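In the current project phase, the collection of sequences with tokenised folds has grown. A representative record is quoted in full directly below:
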Amino acid sequence: DFLAQVHTRHPHVPVILASATGEAPHARAENRRPFASIRKPYDPSRVLAAVRSAARVIDAAGSDSLATLQ
């Protein structure tokens, strides 16, 4: 499960998942929810809002949280 791997390796990274089929099974697991989910057809304003929101979360966490990505 991709989401579980990201949460394990980089717990402070907000994950935005894109789906063509609606709600994915990951949404049912409380401790493995994505930061945001976006469904097709992709609305550019919703994508941008999700990315901006995730960027604010990363910015608020500080540079230490980004160091774990290397």
